[in-house]
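Hello,

Following up on my earlier ticket. Below are the two sequence lines again, exactly as submitted.
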Amino acid sequence: MKVTLEHYLVVGAILFSLGLYTAITRRNAIGILLGVELVLNAAALNFIAFDHYVAESHGPAGQVFALFIVALAASGAVVALAICLEVVRSHRGLAVDDLARLSR
Amino acid sequence: MARVDIAGVAFVALALLTLGSAAIVAFARSVMHSAAGLLGVLCGVAGFYALLSADFLAAVQLLVYVGGTLVVFLFAVMLTLTSARAASSNEPIATGRRAAGWATIALAFALVTIALDTIWPLGEKLVQLPTTAKLGHALLGPYALPFELLALLLLATTVGALAIARSAVKVGAEP
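Thanks for your patience. The regenerated structure is below:
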């Protein structure tokens, strides 16, 4: 079997859809964040696949974007999880449909 | 010929690992199980990076994502979980779940159709060469400014996360 660009795009599409489903159906805020991580990984996988198969200069452009995605995902997750800790202290739970307001 | 076969086998194994773990993330009832599923997804995607000659990114994925972000996730799960409701801590919403499922299936179908029907401008020759040196030159050359901005963002993130997490200790003690 010869692995082509389409194989990676199909895996990325399914990964993206699972992440989106996770993000819109979970009630737990951390569960939603896990779905967002899936979406970000799918996007980075597509960047790397296009960089490998399409780009003229088999070059770093797509990989630079994927590196930025990793760093942005890490920083986003850290801030969001700090907010989650604060929300648990103030609301006694993480169900996002109870969080009409963030302040006490 | 033998190398192509190995790449195909590796691709199928990594795809099974990645998508199976993603299904665990999406459908597990406990948020702890979902976070454990993310481990499989991240490792599978790191393997894909290695297959796509992005060797540096495969290492970064394992070091930063698995070693950093995932550990932060696990800490957050354990700090926020009450043991009484641990088994059902990641319940999906009651209404609209079916609609969400059909909508995402339709989206996946559309994405796969687009991926298969489009004629991509493929490169002529595929080479499996390490790209770390190229990536380093790019980050210190044309992408130097975004790279520095990223460093600034990480600093701001660290300070912001500390400020948010600390404010619970001294309520209302704004500096």
